[in-house]
Amino acid sequence: MKHTTHADFxxxxxxxxxxxxxxxxxxxDIASSHRVSQHHLDKVVQRMSGAGLVTTVRGRGGGVHLERxxxxxxxxxVMRAMESDFAVVECLGPVRFCRVAGVCGARSVFAEALxxxxxxxxxSTLEDIASNPQGLRGALGLVPGVVGN
Length: 149
Hints:
GO terms for molecular function: DNA binding; DNA-binding transcription factor activity. Keywords: DNA-binding. This protein is mainly alpha-helical. It has a single domain (5-139), classed as Arc Repressor Mutant, subunit A (Orthogonal Bundle). Helices cover 49% and strands 5% of the residues. The chain has helices at 5-19, 27-34, 38-50, 75-82, 106-123, 126-129, 133-139, and strands at residues 54-57, 63-66. A two-stranded antiparallel sheet has the order 1-2. Strand 1 and strand 2 form a beta hairpin. Helix 1 crosses helix 2. 20% of the residues are buried.
């Protein structure tokens, strides 16, 4: 299963905010550190704000900051907020055209696998994935004299 760019960017934003010295940053700063499109990041941050993951403040001194403690934000919550389709096979989705749907065992196997996948993501928090804050700061160019890769 591959997640969308929005889910990937959401995790990048959260990692940045977790390790950013001021904990409030502009979308331009975050985009520059990750070398991604500011336009796409704008959309991602809007969606994250609607999901209660971040707060945005407009104007001078504004920016983006974490809405909650990093230990209370699960990776599973982020994925569910950013993705709309987890049907790894057709029979898990709302529309079923498969001729053997309902009579084969694939649906239950993939549903169980998806449940296990989310169990791992739900048990992992932003704090867990940001367990090397100094390394992340260096990679993002947030340490004076160190340029991100």
